Amino acid sequence: MKKPSILAFTAAAIVLSSASELMAQDHLPILQYHHVGEKTPFSTSVTPDQFQAHMDYLDEAGFVVLDLSSALAKIREGKSLPEKSVAITFDDAYLNIYQSGFPILKEKGYPFTIFINTQPLRQKNKHFLNWDQMREMQRSGVSFANHTDSHPYMLRLDESETEVAWQKRMLKEIEQVEKKLVTELGTSPKMLAYPYGESNDWLRLQLAQNKMIGFGQQSGVVNIDSDFSNLPRFPASGAYAKLSALKTKLASLPMPLASFINGGDFAHDLPVTLDLEFKTEKYRLKELACYVSGQGQAKLDWISSTRVKVVAEQAFKYGRGRINCTMPSTKNGQYHWFSNVWIRPKAKQSYLY
After folding, report:
1. pLDDT one-digit tens code per residue, 39-83
2. β-pairing, 221-222 with 307-311?
3. CATH 3.40.1000.70 fits 6-251, yes or no
4. Which of 38, 118, 196, 244 has the least CB density, counted as fewest CB within 10 Å?
């Protein structure tokens, strides 16, 4: 039997029948991949066999793989998605996505999005996709979005750089890619994946003002309450490539937060804290558990019946650190999930605080 095209599959998946509306969902888990290869860096890679196993599971378990941009538009409009909806993304536009990932996805009829850097294209780097390959993939329904031109640490200042000069450089990093997407591919979904997941209030505001959607590298599930200038995705590569872990993430639900305070984007020489305020509905709040990267379980200090302070025991090591919080749902086998990431710069790294 002939497999449906990705375009046909996407159109059919997003149209909700009256029957599917009874079993619809209001949230979206988004998977994040980089390399599909055997000899690529472990932390950002799945092997072709692992990736095939992931996609086979989605198929066999009845997941509905949606075009990312279209699915997010529906969430923002308050419209339901089909039950078991999920979206697939790749960062960095490596050639091995075309060689080893695209054939699997095309055979399944699954849409997906690749966030691209344009500097490797100018340099004709043989390890990255070229525009002809992207146009070929686009004809099968693949979408391409913005990952900046040169993949910088976006919050680091160049030597002697002023904040105004930094702002101009960051806007150029984004605008260059937007222009090339339109020139070479005819369209841009106006989505940006921050390199290394690093952003600040100014960058997020620029995206919101330009009606762009931003993605970080914190884990979690997207719903209408999410910050669309810094959406979460679930990493599915390296240490996170095990199928058992993937199944847990795909069954995750948004954490029912009314608000949260994280103390800013940066961590320094003191332990970080999270202040979480939950919605006033019936949840299993006393079963909330939070884990600090490299440290284990965090201390929970309940301030009221719906508000908790999450406290790390030690300061983070240099680099990026996170706290992941999960809470069992009232539905069997599902967990609410929330994650926050901080940056702890080294003394010689000039970050914009």
Report:
1. 999 999 999 999 999 999 999 999 999 999 999 999 999 999 999
2. unpaired
3. no
4. 244
